Amino acid sequence: MFIFNTMTSSKEEFKPINGKRVKMYVCGITPYDSPHMGNLRTFIFFDVVAKYLRASGYEVFYLQNITDIDDKIITRANETSVLSEKLSSSFMKEYMESMRTFSIDSVSLYARATYHINEIIEQIKILEEKGYTYKLEDGIYFRISKFKDYGKLSGQNTESLRSGLRATVSEDKENQGDFVLWKFKKPGEPFWKSPWGEGRPGWNIEDTAITKEYFGDVYDLHGGGVDLIFPHHEGEIAIMRSISNKDRLSNFWMHTGMLTLNGQKMSKSLNNFLVPGDLLKDYSAAEIRYAMLSSQYRSIADFSMELLKESRVNLNYIKRAIRILEQAKGAGSGTDFELYNERIKEFMDDDFNTRGALRSIMDIAEKVIEKETTLSREEATKGIEIIKWADSFLSIIFTDKPKQISSETVEILLSIRENLRMKKLFKESDDIRKALKESGVTIEDKKDGSQWFYE
What we know:
This protein is of the alpha/beta class and 455 residues long. It folds into three domains: 2-256, 3-Layer(aba) Sandwich (Rossmann fold); 276-394, no CATH class; 407-454. It has helices at 37-55, 71-80, 84-101, 117-129, 203-215, 229-244, 276-280, 285-293, 305-327, 338-349, 354-370, 377-394, 407-422, 426-438, and strands at 2-5, 10-13, 21-26, 59-66, 109-112, 133-136, 139-142, 179-184, 199-201, 219-225, 250-256, 259-261, 264-265, 301-303, 441-446, 449-454. Strands 5-4-3-10-11 form a five-stranded parallel β-sheet, sandwiched between helices. Helix 8 crosses helix 9 (305-327). The two termini are 34 Å apart.
């Protein structure tokens, strides 16, 4: 298995630190607003990574943080006259619902920053003892000039850092790139006690305190969106390596590309984003997830309704093939489905190429439909087995949606619909089709009658 490592800008063979055990960390959300599809592209992809590693025999501890105290949360809380804790809890709940909706269920632990204040304080103490910190009127800062490898991940020059920084907290910093570790409290803001005064943690040190607590100094894989490389991931590296004296924080760094909408970065700050609810009115979660996985994860992907429509067509094509496989009883077509199994594995072992894996499943579907009348039960069993294996990490087909209407009711409604069609009452019969569709039932009309299936 080979993974593109952002740190070295090359594909490297993946070898966990401890045998088959994988420690994987992905930066989670700052719950000050609804998650948008740009966020979910990252979380859907790393869900696939964790699931594929497990399907390949690895034992994965997938850790994700929740930045539940932050400037954005406080600002939004003040704007809406809601307590920051209540605001963040509300959006965390919405986030978890989105994760369930899109079958993102591989995370082992969600770690909230506010539950790790003691660990954060201990890390700042160590940095202070080593001379990496200095105090200003508004907080304790990290001195990047003392960490010689700052900027290695992003290729930034520490002498000319100007862009990509979160809001500058103080104009009196020694270096433009120096970042806050502990912010002293302001009136009306949440705060915790510390040796330096009452306040709250800075952004970067929340993550290192969490990963140190559960993973130690060095772990296998760190993931996130490409927009986090600088300054956030640079900050994490600087903090943890300054504490540990190790030559790295993570063996592999993986970053998903931006999701754009009409050619612009999907971003809340630009008011250019789609939330799941916008799309789920017209498309299923599986169709949206398929769309997210249909491009190379490191590339910039432009989101469009055309992409969703194409994903719907492809997914329906695959489901049609599965129904054929389930009913196969031919003499044999000579199809070796194992070849497709090997092809999917080759794609996934090559930097988690989900686009190639989906194309291979479409190839299986095409072969099944071509050989529909001749497929043997044995061939069909193998075909279904391979598709189920692939879906164990892609999670786009067998999503186990609850049946909203019983099969007996469906049959009664189909009988009524058939009578309406015989009487040429097509509008009424189409109303039944639409009602069934809303209940998760799809009807296929054929010459010899109608077939139905749960989506």
